[in-house]
# Entry
Amino acid sequence: MVGHIVMWKLQDSAAGKSAAENAATMKAMLEALPAAISFLRKLVVSTSVFASSPEVDVVLYTEFDSPEDLQSYQVHPEHQKCVQFVSGVVAERRVVDYTF
# Structure
């Protein structure tokens, strides 16, 4: 199994909306992905981060069967729609991929 964790710090305002509004949009977009990507085994997204160092606004946890499935997810058109939106509102991004 492969775990993929992404953490984002959002811009205070972007695309005419606050960080909280953009975080809510991200959450909705990301939570729609399992219905469109069959090999995405698990997806959890939170905008209720109460402790992090450095500070983040949104956390995504996903699971895949293999590194190849993770790579297919990265280029999947539905995921790329999320990437396009997120790239316009994010200030910082951290990622970790690992096997378990």
In short: The chain has four helices and six strands. The mean pLDDT is 98.
